[in-house]
Structure formats: structure tokens, C-alpha cells
Amino acid sequence: MRRLTPYLLALPSWMWLAIFLVVPLAAMASVSLQTGNVIDGFVMTFSVSNYGDAIGGYSTQLVRSLLYGGCATVAMLLIGYPVAYWIAFRGGSRKSVYLFLLLLPFFVSFVLRTISWGFLLADDGILFGTLKSWGLLPAGFHVLATAFAVVAGLTYNWLPFMILPIYVALERVDPRVVEAAQDLYATRGAAFRKVVLPLSLPGVFAGVLMTFVPATADPINAQVLGGTGNTMIGNIIQTEYLVNNDYPTASALSFTLMAVLLVGIFVYARVLGTENVLEAAAR
Amino acid sequence: MNRLHTPALVRGMTQPRTRRDAFRLAGLSAAGLALAACGVQGQKAAPAKPDAVKDYWAKQKKNGKVVFANWPEYMPEDHGPLKKFQQETGISYEYKEVINENAEFFGKADPVLRAGQSLGYDIVVMTNGIQLQHMIELGYAVALDQTKMPNFQANAGAKYKERSYDPGNVHTMPFASGVTGIAYNTKYVKDELTSIDALFDAKYEGRVGMMADAQEIANFGMIALGIDPEKSTEDDWKKAGEKLKAQREAGLVRKYYDQNYIDAVSKGDVWLTMAWSGDVFQRQLAGEPVKFYVPEEGGTIWTDNMLIPKGAANPVDAMALMDFFYKPEIAAELDEYIQFVTPVPAVQQLLKEKAGTATGEDKQALLDMAESPLMFPTEADYAKLRNYTKLTTAQEQVFNPIFQSITQA
Asked: What interface predicted TM-score (ipTM) does this complex get?
């Protein structure tokens, strides 16, 4: 009995995983191989060609999503790292206040925030309307309905998920090791490069994982902020499920996206894997 | 009609979920499981026997409450007509603005209804299109109690009693009709527009809004080519697809919009856009510089219909409310706000009478409404308006990709 206890204690989480992850995934895998339509129903035909058709039909959007997701992740890293660094090392006693301020906008619904950007960035809105009336921008200038707007929206919406893990990693860096580096005649730059940065890599690793995946799959930013050539794979999946009721294609696309992301993450983990991260920290 | 990202949707997303919603979500995932290994059962309904309909209604009783799911901006903000209903009948109402798009609504409702569960609504409103056809074909729309629609029989216009998509008013009752035409912002477009060609005019590069809905955009592509959508063939769809693709590739289109086109055109993000009549009139009333016209080549007319979804808890109360909207004074109060085409022709006279007693701006506004060909189209106006294409499920699988490859490139 005693030996079984840990397993029994873990049972709820296994059940949770089974019910909300494994079973739906199995159901979706099954649907992705069926054929039919919403009126006559769908039957299992093991048509692997669903995958070929889905990928062939929507490769543009798939590649575009990875590109947008990647750009947004890099942007988040470039913006997020200095913020996390500043809060961790210069935040002093007000650290928790800064972290709270960082999270404050996220008490508002995700969709609502994105739509608000639509209002702020309107061609003749508060910002651009004013700049245009001062003659600082040409009349035809616009940001909405461009790829830039979509990537910026993605960057904005997941920024905290990049900052927080990096902050946690930096927070754990003992200031004395930085002092030690400087005692050993490292310049401030060298101390950062050789000590702080390697120690924060696990945070960067986690941050990239937590932002790249949702940013790549997101349909909302492309829909609200994008224009005619900015459709992402999330939009296509949504259309296939809800508009065309083509469940097999939608499921096949979802699986493809998941597979692509998993492979991407695997490669990324091998390159900048947890072990390597620890090694880098130990060096 | 597509109505995504409207204030009502936002409200829906920001309000806390109730426990009933949680159950419904659970229902949706249970339905998802039903989709599993063995395939998904077809649900094509055999036509109900007349006795079955009678039996169904014989078993139902008045419960004193009704839940009405509708589109945003489709009811006066003070809920006037609904409050009067409550006073007269003692039936309390719950009004929810939860339908933003036919396709999406159907996409969400289908798994729930398929699993034999209730949507939690007693009345829903859907446009005559593919999804309404699906609702009826799949047996998701309760056959109405023909004995409980006295106001409809007495007051609805002939056109609204004989609708090709629901002969005999078996499953639906019309809520309002509207026209798809073109809206433009007079601050940016100084010319008086009359033609559909404006949407394809290089002058407005990057300033044209088109609708994302496959049927809506297909209709306008076909009308621009002189094709009547109702009589169109697969070849016509392809030609329209080419025309719309050229329009996109020339950089004319800024974006393919859902309901949010109306904000874009009144802010000036787009200068002209495909639009629904009543939306534009509501904005005009709010003082925004937008103008609406039906292209001389033609526009489309559609009808939003009320129906009782399968599994509704309060069908008797729902019948009472649906019929209540056909009282002329109620229809007038409703139409004065929504400004679409009412199925009750007597409203025109009532608005004129009200204008007679009103003064100043109100008087003018009421007179304008009563004389507007877009709220009270004459036979000649109707002749200019085209109907939606009727598609079978097989045709839909050809039709949708042609136009979605343009709107979702």
C-alpha cells in the first residue's frame, strides 16, 4: 500500500491529463482521417490524403504563421530581456510593484485589448490623426492592416510571458558572482556576457517556449489588426471548423501545426537544450 | 451576416462565465468525444409527421419565461418591445446579444444540438442562408405551432408569409430584412457614388472594404459582372472569383471585414465598403459622415428569421414572443430603432402618423424613415434586389473555397 501511495496521489493529475488531453487528441486524430460532410455525417475512411490536401492548400498560411510567430518572439526577447533585467537588478524594493504594473493590462480580456489597439492605431485615430494633422506623416500612412501590425499585436499580447521567466532566472543570480567577475577584472560587458547571460538562459528558454507556441497559433491578432494578406493558420483552422464545418481538414491542420511546433521545439531544445543551458551556466 | 468583434461580443467575453456556461462547455467537449472513433452520425431529419408536431405542442406548457438570443444592435437599448411583452403576458424575458455570424453560430451550436443537448435559448435569429438551411435540414428547428401566430397571419406582408427557404412558415418567422449595398465616408469620397464599379476603382486603392462572408462577397462579384446570384452556376462563381482576386491583387482592398466594417468606414480606415443598410442608418443618426446606396447594378436582400432551436425549454413562451413582434405598434417601435425592413407593412403608416404629432428633428427623421425605399421598398425597389444563391452541401464545398481563397489568402 505504501508503495502505491505516490501513484494514488498522482491519480487526479493523470485523470485530468487523460480526460482533457489524451482523449480529445485521440478523438481529433480520428476525425482527421474521416471523410464526409456536416449533413450526412463523417465516416472513418483512414484518408491520410486529408493531411496532404490540408498542408498543400494552406502551406502559405502555415509558413506565414511560423514567420510571424518567430518575429514576434524575437521582438519580445529584445524588448523583454532589458525589462526583466532592469526589474531584477534595479527594481529595488519596488520590484513587486513593477511586476504588478506589468501584469495590470492583462486583467482586461485579450480580445478587448487587441480591439483597443485597432482604435489607437486607426488611420485618423488619436495617434496618427494627430501626427497627420501636424504634417509629420503623409496622409496615406497606415499601420493597421499590415504584417507589422499583426506582429506588433502578437508581441504586445504575450510580452509578460517572456518577461516573467527571464525575471525569475535573473532574480536568482547572486549579485556576488557579478562582483566576483568584476574583481577578476571583467568589464561590465564581459561580466554580463560571461556570467549573467548564461545564468539567465533557462529563463530565456522557457520564455521562448511560452510565447512562440501561442503566438504562432493565434487567430485574433491577424483578424483584428491584419489586412488582406495576413491570414494566419489559426484563422484557417477556425474557418474550417466553424464556417465550413469541415472537421477533418480542421483536425488535420491542427495536428500539422502541433507537429511542426513540436519538431521546432525539439530542435530548439537540442540546440539550446536544458542540459546545454546548465552547462552554459556552469562555464 | 457576420458580426464579430462588436461591443456585445466583447461584453460576452469579459463577463464572468456562469455555471450553466461551464456545463455547456462540458457538453461541447462531450459532443467532441461523440465525434470520435466510429465517425460522426448524420442527422438528416425525416420530415416530421403532422401528428408529431401536434403531440409535441400538446405536451408543452407556458413557463412564464423566455430566453431570446439575437444579434447586436437589433433591439432598442431600453428593450421597449420586450418590456411591453412582459407587461402584457407576464412572461419574463432574458435577452442575449450572442449571435455575431451565422456560420460561427451554427458551428458552435451544431455539436451541442447533435449531442441532444439544449443551447439554453428559446429563440435564435438566423439569416436565410446556408446555415439556416442546415438547421432546418438537420431537424434543429422546432416545427412551429401554426395555431399560435394570429398577429403574424393578420399583419405580416405577403412577401414574408411566402419565403422560398421556408414554405408555409413551418420552422421560422421573419424578424427583419435588410439590404447589402455600399457605404462610403463623405469626408473622403466627395463624388456621389451610384455604381458597384466604385469598389473596383483604382482611385480608391487600399481604401475599399469587402465582406469576408463567402456568400456576401460572391454576390457582389457576380453582380459586378451582371450575373444574378440566385441563378448562378459554378462557372459564374469562378468568374466572380477571378474578378475579386484581381481586385485584391491590384491592392484595392484594405481588409475583408466581419461586422466591424462599420467602425472602419465611419473612422475613415476605409472610404467605401460593402455594408448592411440598417447599420449605416444607425450611424447616420449618430451623426457620422456615412452614406449608403444600392448600386444601380443591384444589391442583395436577405431576411433574418426567428426560430425555436431543438431542446428549447420554453417553446410556448417563445411562440408568444415571436408572434408579439407582429403587432404593428411593436413592430413600429422596433423598426424605428433598427431601421431595417420590417415584415409588417402597417409600420409605414404608423411612422407617418407619429411624424404628424412629432416636431423638429424628430419629425424629419420619422418622415425620412417612412419614405425610405430601404426600409419600405416598393415593388420596383425589390426588383433591383437580388436573392442569395441557394447551395447544396456538395455545391457549398466548391463555392466556399473559391471565395475563401480570396478573403483568407
From this structure: 0.84
